Structures are given as structure tokens and as C-alpha cells.
Amino acid sequence: MKNPDLNNPILKNTAQKNTVQKKVLTTAALVALLFGLSACDNSGEDNAEDAAANEASQEQPQQDEGSPEGGEGEAPEMPEPDLGDVPEVVAEVNDAEISGEDYRTAYESQFMQQSMQAQMSGQEIDEEQLQDQVLNSLIGAELLVQQAEEDGYEPSEEEVDAELQELAEANGMESTDELMQMAQEQGTEEDELRADVQRQLKITHVIESLEVDEPTDEEVQEAYDGFTAGQPAPPEGEGEGDAEAPETPSLEELRPQIEEQLTAQKQNEAATAHVDQMREDADVQIHL
To answer: According to the UniProt entry, which residue ranges have a biased composition of type Low complexity (predicted)?
Structure first.
């Protein structure tokens, strides 16, 4: 079982970028999708505020990466994960096995992202907690895949092709041929990558089938208010000749992003409860 990766953090050097792209091709989609189920403790409004902030920031000039002031400088050395001995099989979920290789790859991908966040926040990574979260995410992913198969859902070749094209574009490529070439250079064969995408589509199918309420106007307004309240005030003493501060986007401009993020949060909450229920009825054996 291989598990694809979806979230790409802001990368600070080419070596880090290549490593994360490899994880995108081998572990990210399933784990990133389920990682939020076990590790997310933000409210939907908080996440929607982040989405609004990201949308607004895209119109603002970016500092050069390197040093905090935008000058040149080397990125700090990334810490190494401490996994210790990982067994060949870390868990059994009903009749399926989660391999140590899949667990290690998923953990290293999440550890890299957490390390980048830790460098910015100054907080240390709780590796024991992270290991539990990644393992539980993999178990949850397997349960969702099994449900999709029990429901008789099998992604079509057209669906897989469309998802591969989207993945290629997300990695800055013009075609899936480029994606396949990069995958092969990094040890992932085409049939393996297609199997990863099929698993991702099965998980997405189950999660999107869960009924959730649409975001209300009140929820959207609350998220927008939280976003605008966090915007910095213009520096004192600015005159007419000074550069204008970036204008805060209106609620209607940000509404699509806010609604999308709130819906995703509701789906995550529904999926969390759904996975918890499935796990109660499943035969799960952990060997880690």
C-alpha cells in the first residue's frame, strides 16, 4: 500500500523542494487528507481566516527568502526524524496491512513540514505525538479505502488521468508525462503512482459523500471579521506621498475562499466522526 502527499509548504531551497516533491508523488495525498482528522484543533473560522489571509497576501509583494530581512542567507539545517526501529508491518486493519515503509515515508513527510513550521514558531516538535497522529491517519485512510471498495466504488481511468493532470499542474508541470518522468527518476513507477491516485480518489469519494451543512452567512461573516481584525493598521504618520497600504479585500471578494474552507472543515469534522465510528467496529492491530 502506497499513500500519496498533498500539502506543499513554502520551501527555502532547491534540495528541500525536490524532497517534498518526491513525497508528493509517494505519500502526501492520503496522509495530508487524513492528517487533519487527528491533528487539527483549529476551528473552521480560524482556517477560513487563514484562507482569506492567503488570498489577500497573493496581491502583496513578497520579500526575498533567505534571511528575515530579505537579504541573502542560508536556510537553517533541517533536523532529522528519530523513528528508531520500525517493524515491517506497523498495523493491521481488518485484512489489510500498513507497512513500515509506508509509515516511515508518511512520517518523514509530515516531520519535514512540522520542522519548517517549528523554525518559524520556535516550538519544538513532539515526535511521539506526531508518530501517533501519522499512524492513526494511515489507519483512518485504510478504513475509508475499504469502505469505498465495499460500496462498489472504483475510480475510472478518466478520473485517474484527471487527478494526475491536476497533480502535475500543482507541481508546476505542463503534462502528466513530465510527472511520470519525475516519478520514475525518484523510484516511483507509473502503475504505483496510478494506484496511489486511485486510493486518494476512493478516500475523497467517501468523504464527499458525507452530508454536511453549507456554511451560513453568519459563519462566513465571523470568519471574515476575524480576518480583517488581524490585518495590520497603516503605519502612523503616513502622508499622501507615501505608498498606499494594501487594501483589504471585501467580504464578497473572499466569500468563495471562505466558504470553500468552511466546507472543508465541516467535511473534516464529519470524516473524523465517521472514521472513529468505523474504527470501533474494525479489527485494528497495532505493532508499533
So the answer is: 50-65
